[in-house]
Amino acid sequence: MENFKKLTKKPLFLPIFCLILVLLINLIKSPDFFAIKISNGVLFGRVIDILNRGSEIAILAVGQTLVVAVSAGTDISVGSVMSLSACSCCMLLAGYGNTNVSALVMPIAVGMIAGVLMGGVCGAFNGALVSKLKIQPMVATLILFTAARAIGLLLCNNQITYIRVEEYKYLGNFIPGCPIPTPVFVAIAVILVVAIFLRKTALGLYIQSVGINSRAARISGINSDVICFICYVICGLCAGIAGIVASSRIYSADSNNIGLNYELDAILAVALGGNSLGGGKFNLAGSIIGAYTIQAITTTLLAMGVSTDVAPVFKAIIVIIIVVVQAPVFKAYMAARKAQKAHVKEAA
């Protein structure tokens, strides 16, 4: 019993418990939920679909976690930056004004790198507003939340740009001969690179120090502005990578729909991961688990026949319950009630 109590106090207990709970509901509703089959040399099944479709949210959650931790604010522009990065990539590959091409103007790698760098530029813009001009994060990122999709439309000449080249589809779908969806590998690569970078350098410690008390961190010799700026750049790069994956998935740049509402899922993933939206200490693993929990909820609702228009309502209710359970105030309330019951029992 004591071991279980210790387990419940672990930071990742609630995020993992919530994910398992959602999966168990699926298993009860559909006994073949965990069934994985191979068709035409690729794996498919609902679990594979969750891992596949949740990859973009997981990538966004990585950057969003750092932004929340360092600035006690959220980047609400990541969905729009995804769209702009995708448009930048496809515009370069197809050539300005072309909307449906089967021959590329330049190599795919050049277009993809340019798209990711566009995300980094957007992150740098947000970071400069927050770190140098001291604008509140939500207000600062509201600029690109509003403008990035419009800029993407201008780059694509107000059209959906289709890249009908087989190699362009690999990043968002399957590489020939590999049964696992490519976005899963991209998400793993992003998570590993950021996790290793945070562990092997002092950046992780600096982020938490700045997030807890930026003034004290500055007095101790940490350049708070630079740390905050770096986090926003990383968040922008993650949004750029997610945008390229999303574009490759549909082999086109649809500025109006790529990354739509993904900023909300990324923020929820951070919250579901047990991270405080007030900044400071963070848990990257928790955010990743939260990202796949969000996708599991979405997949569950669609599997139950809930329409895509109504699904956000049920999704919001479920998320509210999970967030409330993880809230420090709720935990303190439950701890107080438990102590009160123990006191009454002892008195009796």
- Large-scale geometry: globular
Biggest sheet, spatial arrangement of strands: 3-4-5
Largest sheet: number of strands, sense, barrel closure: 3 strands, mixed
Structural class determined from secondary elements? mainly alpha
Task: Summarize the SSE layout with pairings.
Elements: H1 2-8, H2 13-29, E1 37-39, E2 42-44, H3 46-53, H4 55-71, H5 78-94, E3 100-101, H6 108-131, H7 137-155, E4 161-163, H8 182-200, H9 203-212, H10 214-219, H11 224-250, E5 252-253, H12 262-272, H13 284-303, H14 311-326, H15 328-347
Parallel strand pairs: 3-4
Antiparallel strand pairs: 1-2, 4-5
Helix pairs in contact: 2-13, 3-13, 4-8, 4-9, 4-11, 4-12, 4-13, 5-6, 5-7, 5-11, 6-7, 6-11, 9-11, 12-13, 13-14
